[in-house]
Design brief:
The protein has 446 residues and is an alpha+beta fold. It contains ten helices and 22 strands. β10 and β11 form a beta hairpin. Bound molecules: zinc ion.
Length: 446
């Protein structure tokens, strides 16, 4: 199974460059957008959005605990969690349920003859609610039961957090257990001989990690168009371990990519509010304040054009934005940090969100099928989902109509110069230099 090849195999081009097709660009955008490295492979194969699947589509697999052969080093919560799970009596059975695409917990319970009424009680526990409602393919749920009556349920939320529900005298209680993870830094270095992807394999770097690196440098390097033979990368990254077992890779702490002789470097810094960003050695943010396109699109169906004939009204009407065609329900993401100043229906625009960014820039997102959770007046961060692609209002097919305005004047979102994101705040500058100095040194060592 080599799901990534489709998107990344064009990462090297000979000197006679061709313009990338929209779908090539789309592929990389999509790949770069994956943020759940462990399940990235599965997600890529089976879904065109990273929204959790809630639709019923039964094809469940439930294995007895001892027959489990996880393909990823995952942890059997039973083996290490001191809890009531181990105090179950001889009449109890334990099963590990692996979630398949689109499955709901209710279906999985039904298929395995587990008590639905127990499930509905558990699903209402405040600690458990969100972790039982949304399941992702590959998730593991460990259930101990007595003839279908639930004794305990455990779900790995991620490498660190485990939801555990146990039945006691007074009914079910839920808690989130923190599991111990050891983090240590690893380094990898590669030189591109044929493709970035092969160089990564050669260096023993996981697909998710190289995608992560491409995401960090996406603002400066087009990994489809710009990569050449002889380019090199160095990554200093976290490895997560528990009890001598590698769980997976954590975050990239620092990275360098040398592209056609130019070096790009970035290190991760977390401020006191827990916000993580990547900065250059000089303290510049590697990001721009805005993404160029706020959706993973399949093609541009209409460009910015002051003299366009409107496809529905058939009159000359300026087209003051860009139309990005994408399947209905594709997430639409805030182009930059900002505040929701409009959220509602706007004539031909249908369901529309307008964001205010700083004093003078606004962005508009139209024709949504539905809104995501951020309400009028709330703050959003770059990349946060604010709605979903649709064709509400006057539209001939599902697409996002996107506008970018500076001081009220419409500008072409595809060509307008984008301001850089905020540099390292002055109060963190000293701390940043102190904490990143050893990382830059490690990069130098390669
Ligand atoms: Zn439009």
């Amino acid at each position: 199974m080599k799901p990534y090849y489709g998107g990344i195999r064009h990462d090297y081009k000979n000197e006679n460059n061709k313009t990338p097709t929209v779908s090539e660009r789309h592929s990389l955008w999509f790949l770069c957008g994956l943020v759940i490295p462990i399940f990235a492979v599965t997600l890529f194969l089976i879904t065109d959005s990273d929204e959790p699947q809630l639709l019923p589509e039964a094809d469940s697999r439930a294995l007895p605990a001892q027959e489990m052969a996880p393909s990823f080093p995952s942890i059997n919560p039973l083996a290490e969690t001191p809890s009531n799970l181990q105090q179950t009596n001889i009449d109890s059975d334990t099963m590990i349920i692996i979630v398949d695409r689109g499955e709901t917990l209710e279906e999985l319970f039904r298929d395995n003859s587990l008590s639905i009424s127990d499930l509905s009680v558990m699903a209402r526990l405040p600690q458990a609610e969100e972790h039982l409602r949304i399941l992702l393919p590959g998730d593991q749920i460990t259930v101990t039961h007595n003839d279908g009556q639930i004794i305990s349920l455990a779900r790995e939320i991620d490498e660190v957090n485990l939801l555990e529900i146990t039945k006691g005298e007074k009914g079910f209680t839920a808690e989130i257990l923190k599991r111990k993870v050891d983090t240590h830094l690893e380094g990898a270095h590669g030189i591109i001989q044929s493709s970035l992807f092969e160089a990564a394999q050669e260096a023993g770097v996981s697909d998710a990690l190289i995608m992560n690196m491409a995401e960090i440098f996406q603002w400066d390097i087009d990994f489809i168009q710009d990569v050449r033979i002889g380019d090199a990368f160095t990554i200093i990254f976290e490895e997560l371990w528990r009890d001598g077992v590698k769980l997976g890779d954590g975050n990239i702490s620092a990275a360098e990519f040398v592209n056609q002789g130019t070096s790009f470097r970035a290190a991760r810094f977390i401020d006191n509010n827990g916000n993580a960003n990547y900065f250059t050695p000089e303290g510049r943010n590697v990001r721009k304040a805005f993404t160029r396109a706020p959706v993973d699109f399949t093609r541009i169906s209409s460009n910015f054009d002051p003299n366009r004939r409107h496809p529905v009204l058939n009159t000359i009407r300026a087209h003051r934005g860009v139309d990005y065609a994408a399947p209905t329900r594709t997430p639409i993401r805030a182009a930059g940090d900002g505040k929701v100043i409009f959220r509602g229906v706007r004539n031909g625009y249908g369901n529309t969100v307008i964001l205010q960014h700083g004093d003078n820039i606004t962005t508009l997102y139209a024709h949504m099928s539905r809104f995501a959770s951020p309400k009028l007046g709330s703050r959003v961060v770059q990349g946060q989902t604010i709605g979903f692609v649709g064709m509400s209002g006057l539209a001939t097919g599902p697409h996002l109509h996107y506008e970018y305005r500076i001081n009220g004047v419409h500008r072409n979102p595809r060509t307008v110069p984008l301001p850089p994101a905020d540099p390292i705040p002055s109060e963190y500058r000293e701390d940043f230099q102190k904490r990143t100095a050893p990382l830059w040194q490690q990069l130098n060592a390669y």
